[in-house]
Amino acid sequence: MFNYGGKYALVSGASSGIGAEFAKALAARGANLILVARRGDRLDALAAEIQTAHNVATMVITADLANKDAGRNMLADLDRRGIHVDVLINNAGWGYIGKFVEESADGMASEIALNVTSLVDFTRAFLPAMLERKSGVIVNVASTAAYQPLPGMAVYAATKAFVLSFTEAIWGETVGTGVKVLALSPGGTSTEFFEIAGGNSGLGQMQTAQQVVKTAMVALDLKNSPPSVISGRVNHLTSLFSRLLSRKAVVKITKQAMVAR
User: Fold this and answer.
1) Using an 8 Å Cβ cutoff, are 65 and 118 in contact?
2) CA neighbor of 15 nearest in space, from 7, 24, 4
3) Is 10 a residue whose pLDDT tops 70?
4) pTM for this predicted structure
5) For the segment 135-158, what is each residue's pLDDT rounded down to a tens digit?
6) How large is the average pLDDT for residues 228-242?
7) Per-residue pLDDT tens for 50-70?
8) At how many degrees (to 10) do helices 209-221 and 17-28 cross?
9) Could you give the CA distance from residue 114 to residue 171 in angstroms, rounded to a whole number?
10) Domains parsed from the chain with CATH numbers
């Protein structure tokens, strides 16, 4: 089992939801935290809460991770401070609910930059040192949307399919190195996601962010942790249908589900 005590964990998108819960769970295991997001006031409040509860070091970095070279710039900044990252939680991301032709070009570019480009850049920036130390953890937050095309969230689902495929490939490259790599796929979760995305979940009862994070931590605690995990039994079962039906049928079903929202 990975020992988090005294290690530095960088959590992106830490100002709320799944990111904030990851920060709390890691601090409970003794990890020092680097909390990264755009909303500095929320990060400050979270850092204060965690310091009171767990007495670990916390660092707040306000940054827009959709900017070019965000991962490499973050690595350079932390190197100057003499801090190395042992745990990387790539959680920052967002999605748009609506027809592809109705999403702005700037919105799509930002969505791809944050969900894909930044995640790859951060992974590339921090993985080499983990491999050199033969120790580390990387969690990339994907989604159950990764398991099928999703009319009505076309770009978002495609970015998460990339995250899932990319992360599982990196898991394959790092098996036996001492570095754990995991793609975490939540389904509908009680966070700000749907408010920001511009729609509602239409998914009935959703999981809590705490439940999602617990799923990841349990998977990481396994001696031979898997390349990916889906949070929630119902989510796991529904993700399987795309493997059993034709692609045409899958797209029709997911389209009807999105319209029903």
Assistant:
1) yes
2) 24
3) yes
4) 0.92
5) 999 999 999 999 999 999 999 999
6) 89
7) 999 999 999 999 999 999 999
8) 50
9) 21
10) 8-259 (3.40.50.720)
Unique residue bearing structure tokens 């490939």: 169
Report residue 89 as tokens.
């939680």
| CA 190/CA 148 separation, integer angstroms | 22
Q: DSSP for 25-58, please give it.
A: HHHHTT-EEEEEES-HHHHHHHHHHHHHHH---E
φ/ψ of residue 8, rounded to 5: -95, 130
H-assigned helices in 30-141: 40-54, 70-80, 105-112, 119-133
Return the closest-CA partner of residue 191 out of 9, 22, 1: 22
Query: Which listed residue (4, 8, 147, 156) is catalytic?
Result: 156
Backbone angles phi, psi at 253, to 5 degrees: -65, -45
Q: Which pLDDT belongs to residue 223?
A: 94
Percentage of the chain modeled with pLDDT above 90? 78
Are the CB atoms for 139 and 92 separated by under 8 Å?
A: no
- pLDDT on residue 191: 60
Residue 96 designated active-site: no
What's the confidence (pLDDT) of residue 237? 87
Helix axes 17-28, 40-54, angle to 10 degrees: 20
| Three-state DSSP class for residue 231 | coil
pLDDT at 20 over 90: yes
Task: Describe the strand order of the beta sheet including 58-62 as a list of residue ranges.
Answer: 58-62, 32-37, 8-12, 87-90, 136-141, 179-185, 228-230
d(CA 77, CA 10): 13
List all residues 6 or more positions away from 48 whose beta carbon is below 8 Å from its beta carbon. none
